[in-house]
Amino acid sequence: MRDILKPSVVLFIICLAVSTALAFTYAVTKDVIEERAKLDRENARRAVLSEATAFEKIEDLESLIGGEAAKDKVKEAYRGLKNEDFVGYVFTLVTKGYGGEMTLTIGVDKEGKVSGVKIGDNRETPGLGAKAKEEPFISQFLGLTSGEKLSIVKGKKSKPEEIQAISGATITTKAVTEAVQAAIDVAAELMEKEGVEK
Fold it and tell me: At what positions is FMN phosphoryl threonine found (predicted)?
């Protein structure tokens, strides 16, 4: 009995010590981690709508937008301001890629044009879906407006609203394209409701 009890007590003490150390580390770093995440989100907003100097969160977004697809993807919306003048919107969206959920930050300027796309947290396949973060793919969205619906093509694109798919990453391409389309649609809807003149 003593041979069984002694290792069990030692194991229990080790587990207790490790758990206490982890809890202490979490308590000490929790605020720092949250502050860092907040700063990362702010930097992403500035990257996609560089003209803005401040961002004002749009409260009660669900009641302002109509489309269910857009409501499912758009998690947060901000008005971009420069000297209290409206310069555009920034949206935080979550879409489903090949590797799971992807978080995107998308800017739409006051003209209704996509001003930037930044892909954040994702688990897309390195060398394939992860190419969605790279310039050749992302730059296809810049300047697009709410005119024609975006479509995906596997060969060369012939129209601005056509998005050339990443080879071997069609699901990722579709996920990002749908998120950008949702941001464009929501921006157009908000501009109409808020009386923004283009």
Answer: 170
